[in-house]
Amino acid sequence: MRVFEPITINGMRVKNRFVRSATAEGLAAPDGSATDRLEAAMKRLAMGEVGLVISGHAYVEKRGQAGPWQLGVHTPDMEPGIARLARAVHAYGGRFVVQLAHAGCRAATEHSGEPAVGPSALAGSEDPKAPLCRPMEAEDLARLEAAFGTAAALCREAGADGVQIHAAHGYGLSQFLSPRTNRRLGAYGGSLANRARLLLEVIWAIRGRVGPDYPVLVKLNSDDFIEGGLSAEESRQVVHWLAGAGADAVELSGGTFDSGRLSPIRPGRIALPDGEAYYREAARAVKAEGLPIPVLLVGGIRSLPTAEDLVASGAADMVALSRPLIREPGLVARWKGGQDAPSACVSDNLCFVPLRRGEGVSCLTELREKKRAGQAQEARI
Fold first, then answer.
1. Residue 211 covered by a domain
2. Is 60 in contact with 110 (CB distance < 8 Å)?
3. Buried-most residue among 2, 87, 96, 147 (CB within 10 A)?
4. Is the residue at 246 inside a domain?
């Protein structure tokens, strides 16, 4: 099957086409450093034959922290922890990429201790959900770009195989891309070219620190699925600019936390196969334009036949999984071994309940099913 064939991204050879899409684990220490539990989570994914493991979003500066127990790559003290995670994945033949992120206006100021900064001050605007946020000034933009570059250099020194820039889901760089959240005038607002400027400058800042031969990926919304947000047409244009700026691959996702049922973590059971691969057509449209970089596709992929069809048909070069690997870290290994039943994930999003309690992300539904099964067995005895 094509989905089990290797692929190379800027010299990084990945043994198959399966990706663990960046997922907030909630398993880092309060200071952002890696822990034994986070290392064990990365190890389980690599043991489960996931070819490319991408870490949960890691903040590049303290004021870009999105929440508690989030991984950090913001100080030199974080390097030993990143090295631990890389070694855990490498031990089982996987590749490890760190997702670099800045929460922008969605920053958790109670944890960062600093005011949130983003493209625009939206509080009090027509958007009732808009957070209090100070518009970035020139020195803030320069600081952010430098932070991404420094974090990427740290990851390279630590032995990570690459980095991924988080520019999706309504976080900092996604906020700049969206006309809904970017109300700036001047060089970083207004036209799409201006709204994409910061993202491209982040790529150049990273390249200036790691050179041309280190894999740099980008996660991008194919569509914000919200009025006034980044459109599908605009997203395709941004992908062109990313390829020209030196990005080595793009992962297509979609939606923001304000997009309702079209958010990145859509709730509800997925009909197989017709309801799978939310952003399939967006990926096809990007691939049809003949860009020279691989396209990774995440969102609603639950079965091996769909994963294989995406790769074999040329809709995507790699398939990325998030919630299915929370439910079953060994899913890819099971499929590879011939047990091709779809993922048992029911997309109820209960996996985030223990995350919010500070216990780390895990499949609460699976735990409840096991408990009911145990109770039923006791009743039979």
1. yes
2. no
3. 96
4. yes
